[in-house]
């Protein structure tokens, strides 16, 4: 099977106080079409840097080396059209002066050669797909009128509006309470299955990721320490660091 995404020798450095700081180094990683991949690690491990490097969302001062290729797309992947990205904090990723329906519709309008009326209709359909109540009425609401969980559902609707091949969820549940976290994970699982999308689920919570992913990649200090099928990695971790992550979650130890 041809990989959707192929990463070789990926590294990212930043300039801080006149010196280079290595955020990511020597990453080799593939993701197949339709695969659900979790990228796990503590804060500062490089997992979010990896997600943003794949999506081309690194800040201008970042220095990237290595190669991110898209053999399954046949060209450089485009944000919105090929890559949907869900950020950690929906309050900061949504525009406060646009209705939520307009923000979802804008993605479809920009990427699908779709007129604005059709894009607005699609936005209502997508708000319904992410299980928001009274989607036609809610499409006219502004972000400040929604709860945190509702905002994240809107962000997910916008991320899938153009039918991307890969959905990246970067700590998309960490700002939510436990019950809403489980609901969002279940929603993401359903959407990627229905649409045949690949998923990159970035999280510090290996227990949460284990319930969602086919495969887990573990990161520490900007390097990938191991990767493997979820069941095998949990049953027989190769890295002491992975063992420590598992030990922190009762019921997941090998």
List keywords for this structure.
254 residues; alpha/beta; three-stranded antiparallel β-sheet; 10 helices
Structure notes:
The protein is an alpha/beta fold. It has a domain of 76 residues. Helices cover 36% and strands 27% of the residues. It has ten helices and nine strands. The strands form two sheets. Strands 5-6-7-3-8-9 form a six-stranded mixed sheet. Strands 2-1-4 form a three-stranded antiparallel sheet. It is globular and about 50 Å long. The two termini are 30 Å apart.
Layout of helices and strands:
Blueprint: E1 3-16, E2 19-32, E3 36-40, H1 47-55, E4 63-69, E5 83-86, H2 90-93, H3 100-111, H4 116-129, H5 135-138, H6 148-159, E6 166-170, H7 178-195, E7 198-203, H8 206-210, E8 215-220, E9 223-229, H9 230-235, H10 240-247
Parallel strand pairs: 3-7, 3-8, 5-6, 6-7
Antiparallel strand pairs: 1-2, 1-4, 8-9
């Amino acid at each position: 099977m041809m990989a959707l995404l192929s990463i070789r020798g990926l590294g990212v450095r930043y300039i801080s106080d006149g010196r280079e700081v290595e955020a990511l180094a020597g990453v080799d990683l593939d993701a197949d079409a339709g695969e659900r991949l979790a990228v796990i690690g503590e804060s500062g491990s490089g997992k979010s840097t990896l997600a943003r490097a794949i999506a081309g969302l690194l800040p201008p001062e970042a220095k990237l080396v290595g190669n991110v290729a898209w053999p399954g797309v046949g060209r450089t992947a485009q944000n919105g059209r090929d890559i949907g990205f869900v950020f950690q904090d929906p309050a900061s990723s949504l525009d406060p002066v646009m209705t939520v329906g307009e923000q979802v519709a804008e993605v479809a309008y920009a990427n699908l050669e779709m007129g604005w009326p059709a894009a607005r209709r699609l936005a209502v359909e997508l708000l319904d797909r992410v299980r928001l109540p009274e989607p036609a009425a809610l499409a006219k609401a502004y972000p400040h009128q929604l709860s945190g969980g509702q905002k994240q559902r809107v962000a997910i609707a916008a991320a899938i509006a153009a039918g991307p091949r890969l959905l990246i969820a970067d700590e998309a549940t960490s700002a939510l309470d436990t019950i809403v976290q489980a609901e969002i994970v279940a929603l993401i699982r359903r959407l990627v299955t229905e649409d045949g999308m690949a998923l990159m689920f970035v999280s510090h919570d290996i227990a949460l990721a284990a319930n969602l992913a086919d495969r887990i990649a573990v990161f520490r200090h900007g390097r990938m320490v191991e990767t493997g099928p979820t069941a095998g990695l949990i049953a027989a971790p190769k890295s002491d660091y992975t063992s420590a992550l598992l030990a922190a979650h009762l019921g997941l130890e090998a």
